[in-house]
């Protein structure tokens, strides 16, 4: 196991530091204490070449603004909150808005832009980093002082696990995720459209024209959103479909089935890389980078549309008329506890 850290620069009198976690095979991650941003997930291909399988900005200082939330912890709540308001205990909560009429990804100064304290621990089987942050009562409109602990762990089986923990001194809302953009071709050599995707889900959460849930669940069978049998992401992405039109591609929450441990699989046949996703979250938002920003990537060019896919395991976003709010409620003194495991392997083509 290997641990390194490198000083980047200063922000608000705090150091921005990059940490590296590696196993004995060279698999591992690089991340920042700023927003817990995952800048690199380094994975071997079928020939043993180790490459980065998430999008990364060339200039690490871009993460101070991070317009596309690359690799970041998102909170207190992931996704949009319809009209920036909801009810909790019959009280109307009003949140800072940053996605038009909605709040998105925790608000304009959400967890993505906070400095986390980092403690690194290792043993012969795994290495982990504990990222902690104290979110004060009223931050971005959320009630309660919230203690957040997020643990990044890698092991010798080429697994990367994210564990999310939080406790509040008031009833509040919490729905944490990570916003990494995956591309298993390595070092963004090609777009995501020829990747094969499996999603263990029978129902899509319908979105309105403001891209917030209506509360209606749509059966995915015989629609472009059916990935119960693995298919290329690009096969149906441009079909004439009202939900695809709203997102200009995939930018939707799927409700995950309770049956089966494996919730999602992403495969890139040419490199042989496979990523299996396991989680106790109720849903996953998939976003095929339909609206790339103009910041240069580490591979030396600006991102193109559909260069990668964000895989955001989370509870359903809060929609119209408080729909799905119940999934984000964290009661005073109770522990929020979620985890997602990304297991990397090589495709068996026999």
How is this structure best described in words?
- Keywords: Carbohydrate metabolism, Isomerase.
- Belongs to the aldose epimerase family.
- InterPro entries: Ald1_epimerase_CS, Aldose_1-epimerase, Aldose_1/G6P_1-epimerase, Gal_mutarotase_sf_dom, Galactose_mutarotase-like, GH-type_carb-bd.
- The chain has 350 residues and is mainly β.
- It has one domain: Beta-galactosidase, Chain A, domain 5, CATH 2.70.98.
- It is built from 1 helix and 28 strands.
- β19 and β20 form a beta hairpin.
- The mean pLDDT is 94.
Instruction: Please give the number of β-strands.
Output: 28
What integer is the average pLDDT? 94
So what's the overall shape? globular
Main pleated sheet: 9 strands, antiparallel
| The CATH architecture | Distorted Sandwich
Protein name: Aldose 1-epimerase
EC number: 5.1.3.3
Pathway: Carbohydrate metabolism; hexose metabolism
Family: Belongs to the aldose epimerase family.
Secondary-structure map with pairings?
Blueprint (H helix, E strand, L loop, with lengths): L1 E10 L2 E9 L5 E5 L5 E7 L5 E3 L20 E2 L5 E2 L3 E4 L2 E4 L8 E2 L12 E6 L3 E10 L10 E10 L3 E10 L3 E2 L3 E2 L2 E2 L13 E4 L3 E5 L5 E7 L11 E2 L9 H6 L3 E5 L6 E7 L4 E7 L3 E5 L21 E6 L14 E2 L4 E12 L4
Antiparallel strand pairs: 1-2, 2-3, 3-4, 4-5, 6-16, 7-10, 8-9, 11-12, 12-13, 13-14, 14-28, 15-27, 17-26, 18-21, 18-23, 19-20, 19-22, 22-25, 23-24, 24-28, 25-26
